[in-house]
Amino acid sequence: MSDFSKLNILLEQLKNSAAQIDRTRGEHHLPLFDDTLFHCHGKLLTPCVTEAQSTLESILREQKANKLTQARAEYLTERLLAQISAIQREISTQSIRSNEPKHSSYYRKPISDLYQDLAQHQDWERRLRILVSDKENALHNAPGFHQQGAQQALLVAEQRLKRCQEAKTKIEKQITYREKHQ
């Protein structure tokens, strides 16, 4: 197996890890790497892995076309190895990163998004009230041997409604705070 196919396998593994981290962590508030190393100014890891893969493809393409000079080969190889080690370092320091204080922009949704969230929660609250009402009726009309199941279903619906109302109140407070402090 050539070193290039090993690098391809390594980059595929890094891409899978990066995608998993990006899904759980989301976008970082600053680019993760220096822009001399990655031109994509990545706030996510996956685009950086993709750029490293294209660096490898450049080496292979230029080598195949006999256009790879010694200086160019050294430059691209050093760049690729630096990109790979930077990505590996970032992946291996995830546990440390998760303890970093979050940037204020991480918490600041645009106020229009807060209003959309509020409208969504109001709609859910309306539907859950109807659900609770339906479950109350089902409980009152349930024969004795179905009473316990109907009671449990009502309790679950009431808990969902309560959580929805608490979330709605939290969004309302965020909106009020943001409107006062703009």
Per DSSP, what share of the residues sits in E-state strands of 2 or more residues?
under 5%
What pattern of helices and strands is seen along the backbone?
HHHHHHH
Total helices: the number is: 7
Shape: elongated
Tell me the distance between the termini. 61 Å
Radius of gyration over C-alpha positions, nearest whole angstrom: 27 Å
SS class: mainly alpha
Q: What percent of the residues sit in helical stretches (DSSP H or I)?
A: over 70%
Structure description:
With 182 residues, the chain is mainly α. The chain contains seven helices and no strands. Helix 1 packs antiparallel against helix 2, helix 1 packs parallel to helix 3 and helix 2 packs antiparallel against helix 3. The mean pLDDT is 86.
Key terms for this structure?
182 residues; mainly alpha; 7 helices
